[in-house]
Amino acid sequence: MIELTEKEKSLIRIIQDDMPITERPYKAIADSLGTTEEEVIAKINEFREKGYIRRFGATLRHREAGIMANGMGIWIVSKEDVQRVGKIMASFKEVTHCYERPTFSDWPYNVYTMIHGKTREDCEAVAKRISEAAGIKDYKMLYSTKEFKKTSMKYFEDGEEG
Fold it and tell me: Which of 25, 57, 67, 124 has its CA 20 to 30 A from that of 145?
């Protein structure tokens, strides 16, 4: 079990959320913790080196950037061809997620791709290119009608012991 200090937990509470939008976000984090920017960066690097943090990245708010359509491509791919096809599908820059999932008697789709574009037509065009590249013709596109929740995972909450 990993033992973290309260100060380390406080840092995790902050970095698991949105980064401050400022020229020096690590300084803003340090100021809120009563430490230095260098100490914050060093601690984040230590967490990465120890494997506590697998990756540290940014998420683009796609709607603000003009990416208005998100289509879930659902594909029927033979078990023998999943690896080959999955690699092809995942290679498209417009695909952010590509998964294999189990099938059911009334649901034959086993490969899923999340495709992003400015319009539905853009997503459809990408799906067609994927279909041609992978040689998979049996697919459909699903589009969201309402978003109920979209948040990042929280490992420590305010006031939580952890």
Answer: 57
Residues 40/26, Cβ–Cβ less than 8 Å: yes
pTM of the model: 0.62
Closest CA to 123 of 135, 141, 139: 141
Residues 6 or more apart in contact with residue 67 via CB below 8 angstroms: 60, 116, 117, 118
What are the φ and ψ backbone dihedral angles of 113, each rounded to 5 degrees? -130, 130
Q: For residue 48, what are its two tokens? A: 């990465």
CB burial readout 75-97, b (16+ within 10 A) else e: bebeeeeeeebbebbeebebbee
What's the rounded Cα separation, in Å, for the pair 120 and 82?
Answer: 26
